[in-house]
Write a sequence for this structure.
């Protein structure tokens, strides 16, 4: 009996003393032999012989482990290749989007804004021809003032479309430059002091997401400059492992809590636009404000949305440099 393969003893006669086994699986066996005469009992426990069948090289543990490792490396390589494809497609879409927006901005500037500017000159000429103060001249002055504001907003929109303010990867530097620009353009005698703080290890943000975050921050800073009468404005950027945070605070006059919570006021779409932008990429925007107590705006973006892809690309290129 071959222990490990047979379950019962095989009896053979005196003329048959050969045991043959074929295609034995690789393992350790014990070959047992017992003998007996016609008038005697079986020789217990018999004779034991240990036998070890070695596996072929393709069935060894090291070869199977090597195959599993090679398969995992192949999966990892395919995953990295797919990430690289996604990154390339993302860059192509970004370039196409920037080109299209630049084209739209150029057409708006060259046609619509220039046409309005020419119309403003004609209206101003008509205003100068009118005699003395009258209701007509007052109404025309009001219309001209509103048209100037509309043209200024149109220029801001064209500037937004060109994306020139966030061409750099550091959003903190972009906000610092924006604060300086708003201070230079401010008509107020007391220009608020803008401070930008950065906490945590800086991580790369997806270009399109960085653009949306910048637009939210810009709208908040513009509101603080134009409407809050603030003396101090602080923007805090936090790169946390689980989330990306952007807090903007000012010590201005504040806004009506109902307007801050609902984001609705006749003729004003800044707050609704900020909420819509945050919602479009999976972020959360919260606003706290009271009259006379300043305003605080907090934007929270999950890490998987904020810098998940950039971290994957960074690991890929880091490994490439090492190899």
């Amino acid at each position: 009996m071959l222990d490990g393969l047979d379950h019962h003893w095989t009896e053979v006669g005196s003329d048959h003393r050969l045991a043959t086994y074929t295609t034995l699986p690789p393992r350790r066996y014990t070959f047992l032999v017992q003998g007996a005469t016609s008038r005697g009992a079986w020789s217990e426990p018999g004779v034991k012989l240990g036998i070890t069948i070695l596996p072929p090289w393709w069935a060894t543990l090291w070869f199977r482990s090597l195959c599993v490792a090679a398969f995992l490396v192949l999966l990892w390589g395919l995953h990295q290749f797919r990430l690289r494809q996604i990154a390339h497609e993302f860059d192509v879409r970004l370039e196409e989007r920037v080109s299209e927006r630049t084209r739209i901005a150029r057409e708006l500037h060259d046609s619509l804004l220039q046409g309005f500017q020419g119309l403003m000159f004609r209206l101003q000429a008509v205003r100068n021809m009118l005699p003395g103060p009258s209701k007509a001249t007052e109404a025309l002055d009001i219309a001209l003032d509103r048209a100037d504001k509309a043209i200024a907003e149109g220029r801001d929109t064209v500037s937004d479309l060109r994306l020139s303010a966030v061409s750099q990867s550091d959003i903190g530097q972009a906000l610092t430059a924006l604060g300086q620009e708003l201070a230079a353009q401010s008509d107020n005698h007391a220009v608020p002091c803008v401070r930008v703080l950065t906490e945590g290890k800086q991580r790369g943000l997806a270009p399109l997401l960085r653009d949306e975050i910048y637009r939210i921050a810009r709208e908040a800073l513009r509101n603080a400059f134009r409407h809050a009468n603030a003396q101090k404005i602080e923007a805090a950027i936090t790169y946390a492992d689980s989330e990306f945070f952007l807090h903007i605070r000012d010590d201005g006059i504040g806004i009506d809590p109902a307007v801050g919570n609902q984001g609705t006021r006749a003729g004003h779409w800044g707050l609704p636009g900020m909420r819509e932008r945050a919602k479009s990429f999976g972020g959360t925007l919260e606003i706290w404000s009271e009259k006379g107590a300043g305003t605080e705006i907090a934007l929270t973006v999950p890490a998987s949305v904020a810098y998940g892809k950039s971290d994957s690309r960074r690991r890929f290129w880091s490994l490439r440099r090492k190899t």
Summary: The radius of gyration is 39 Å. Strands lie at 2-3, 28-33, 47-52, 193-199, 232-239, 243-250, 284-289, 295-302.
